[in-house]
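Quick one - inputs below.
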Amino acid sequence: MNIRSNPDTTLPAVTTGPLPSSRKIYAVPDSAPDLRVPLREIILSEAASEPNLPVYDTSGPYTDPSVTIDVNAGLPRNRIAWVLERGGVEEYVGRDIKPEDNGNVGADKAAKAFTAHHKPLRGLDGHKITQLEFARAGIVTKEMIYVAERENLGRKVQLERAEAALADGESFGASVPAFITPEFVRDEIARGRAIIPCNINHAELEPMIIGRNFLTKINANIGNSAVTSSVEEEVDKMVWAIRWGADTVMDLSTGRNIHTTREWILRNSPVPIGTVPIYQALEKCNGDPVALTWELYKDTLIEQCEQGVDYFTIHAGVRLQYIHLTASRVTGIVSRGGSIMAKWCLAHHKESFLYTHFDEICDIMRKYDVSFSLGDGLRPGSIADANDRAQFAELETLGELTKIAWDKGCQVMIEGPGHVPMHKIKINMDKQLKECGEAPFYTLGPLTTDIAPGYDHITSGIGAAMIGWFGCAMLCYVTPKEHLGLPDRNDVKTGVITYKIAAHAADLAKGHPAAQLRDDALSRARFEFRWTDQFNLGLDPDTAKSFHDETLPKEAHKVAHFCSMCGPKFCSMKITQDVRDYAATLNDPATVGMTISGTIEDGMAQMSAKFKEMGGSVYLDAEKVKESNKALS
Amino acid sequence: MNIRSNPDTTLPAVTTGPLPSSRKIYAVPDSAPDLRVPLREIILSEAASEPNLPVYDTSGPYTDPSVTIDVNAGLPRNRIAWVLERGGVEEYVGRDIKPEDNGNVGADKAAKAFTAHHKPLRGLDGHKITQLEFARAGIVTKEMIYVAERENLGRKVQLERAEAALADGESFGASVPAFITPEFVRDEIARGRAIIPCNINHAELEPMIIGRNFLTKINANIGNSAVTSSVEEEVDKMVWAIRWGADTVMDLSTGRNIHTTREWILRNSPVPIGTVPIYQALEKCNGDPVALTWELYKDTLIEQCEQGVDYFTIHAGVRLQYIHLTASRVTGIVSRGGSIMAKWCLAHHKESFLYTHFDEICDIMRKYDVSFSLGDGLRPGSIADANDRAQFAELETLGELTKIAWDKGCQVMIEGPGHVPMHKIKINMDKQLKECGEAPFYTLGPLTTDIAPGYDHITSGIGAAMIGWFGCAMLCYVTPKEHLGLPDRNDVKTGVITYKIAAHAADLAKGHPAAQLRDDALSRARFEFRWTDQFNLGLDPDTAKSFHDETLPKEAHKVAHFCSMCGPKFCSMKITQDVRDYAATLNDPATVGMTISGTIEDGMAQMSAKFKEMGGSVYLDAEKVKESNKALS
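Output:
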């Protein structure tokens, strides 16, 4: 990996270069030869008697050595042509950037503005704009072709194997197909079961799809808080998060420089960016929830639509009449957006303006194809509060709002908890599917216990794997810093890897046709002592190699038929291979399908003698290995 | 925490002293006032309006400042009196220690022998020796009284609350009672549904129970391999593992000094120690599985029975006729013991001597009350091999052997996988319960995917939580080093904490009457911004505090009503508390059970005005906090 040192030190330095033994490849869909759909090919060692493995690649141009990265200029804006060629949009002079957009930051503390300015696009009345509208009209967009190709992970149609995988899994009623076609994508979007978050102004985007009949996705939250962090750190975190597999990134920045931070992130992000607009709206009224107004909020929506944000978390389900339901909770309201709106509702004794103006919100978002992520402002914040009436009352309202947004032509997903013990997780998934007409579910964890601050990536990774299996479409990561502080770069990586594990475990359990290919490739590498392949096929080759190197650092150990865990004499894989090799030399079917039977006694006696003969020679000398390590260290 | 520096540097240095804000307390059972059952009391801050929280304590005398720890002398041998007073045992001159017991280690590499020598005890013919025999005879032993007290976590009988918790959980047919009595313990042991691993020669033991109607337990594997590690490191790892919550420890040492390492561990261990005797037997024939004999193995069993090992993993289910079933596996046989026995069976073309001599093995183990941990030598080593015929054929044989061992009066648990995707986990649990007559299940993970070497504590923590919920009685930890190298001290801690999370999440989901008390206490601390209480109530107070200190290091921040994650303006818990406090001042029931209704409009208008008045004053100034941090760092 190369850390790019930027000559201008005020600009973000980001990590570029391919992952170990990987190269970027691009698939070209038959139906759209101008598209280049990225994949990462993991290159196996010469000892491998199998092809290289293509895997899903969220990392964007940063891992393509042929692309020159200039954070100052942003990524290529390829997708603008797709939007323009289908028409129905206009370029216009966007809203001016005002001092309050950046929290009235003083000149001394203002972050450097992003250099380039792009005029925004918006939809014209009477024209189709959103992916949902195109899908319903039977039109397959380039975005749909792109994600179809991407979801197949570079494999060709192999119906028999794919169907066997599906039959072996348990998907709880999902309809994962053996192979993803653009038409399948279109159909799922038309039914509201999947979304492609893709603001027409986010031209740097490599489209991806969220829905339970596709690969399970993960989101990484970044963003500064009022207490710590900077623009540079946040852009770096975004690039770092997608390097390890984040499918979308939410910029949850608060405090000053909020507009500028988001601009830098968007112009450099190949993945969808989500935000919670109420955070910025609150900055515009100096942090006083009571002073929030619909006009301030609307202004913020338009500002962020023009920038290119792909999905908005909107807590429109926090209704005045539900707030008292949280009164007896152990941890009250734990959603930032939820608590802000609760305070507003109570202070004014009015229904939430997000609820009363929901129609208008839809009309704005539709013009830019910004997807809804209907926020769960009343999600539980502790095991004690899971699945209570407040939570489910809000979920029912989110179902009602889903249908309104769909009628308006908007794409929708639904946010979910939070903190839920294992036995109450499936109830959440089932109720969400029922109330929200199978709109994609997007949950935060859930944490399955509250007793491990510092390890909430794990308490929640358990719940995330389970709810992903049950049908959740996207899992919002939780880092080790959850409840304790703002995650740094290392926390972001740990959170992303943990959630890639959860998402992949879910895909495996659902029987996703391509999921087990990677497990099997890695298992074969492990069994055949191709250590380097084992590292490189894993989610984090750097960490795997460094752990191995701690005890067996020499290059020769990368082909050794053992590791330091058991040592050479006790390596079960080695012994098993000895057994197999030996059985093969006998070339006698009876040695494989062996039973205790007199008829093959002669063969067995011969086998027995040969084994004795092999004796000690099949093992390496452990003490010698130890000495050689000592000499080296 | 204090790191004990031993004046004699050739002896192990171990970690002593209480955990942060904790003190050791001892409960005295009504029915045995001479027993002192350890608990750890977490002392809450003065701001807490609730009592201190007692939690299960595996750490032994090491965390009791009133006990002087001398690793050279070993722990007090309190339990010897319990064994002697019930009679039926004899002291005798044990087997001599031979050079091959320590792998014929040369004088230059020999570890220092443990100083004290204790003559072993063994059962006399015609007398009851094992907990199973006593239980069946209706006799409640001190061990049973001890574990009953321990399992209740210091709580009194509160039937109503306990029954509500049980009713709220889903235990899949377990029979967890509202309160544990010694008679319940006796009955569960008599039925074979639980075991107390307690060799009569492990007099340092603080007894514990393993069974699905008790708290879910975890095991930590330690032990040197031929390539790395030393006696000192292993004793330190044992003490370190139990400090963080390991309920039992397996010494999986191989290589030289194997007898001496085990002696040091046993004499200093308050938790049950398990081993895999075939590892040492193999050392006695220079690592050649083909040269293994029943006599060598039997000699090893007696050696370890006399030392005080509490449970033996015995791979007696790896039968000759099953070995060919592994031929087409992706990863063959991955159990060390399983592969050793497979090689022996094939080389000799004979049934495994562990199977043919099973009766004799029972007779030996019964005399010392060593529990069986029937090994799963044919467990899957990859997702591809999960739940295959080889695995389940062996499990059926383990069921057959369970009944033989029970007939002989031995306590039994059953080992399980390994590598299993989520949707195939419950099948394992259900089949084990059926085949093995509800004998406790003890699984390694299982790992739910193979694609994350370096993170297998997480891939397996997911599976462990699930199988614990489904009924698994003990979860064998997996560390981040799994498949890559021998775990060090940090890996041991990470593995233990991860598995404490899994076990606790399982207990919560089962509805264990006492499990949620800790979650609720921590959640209340979190909501009330008692930061120090939040850290101390967690599984790893040191890590939680250090994460918090990274961004808010000052003592004043330990009472701040926000953290660096969201900052003061966006802290949902703060806002919620503001809302509640405000509602409380109105002293009007309508403000809690508020609805949109004209009748309380006046109250609401008043509320609205007051909220406006509170305005900006309820928030701390984020920028000021940031500055103060900068000044400090």
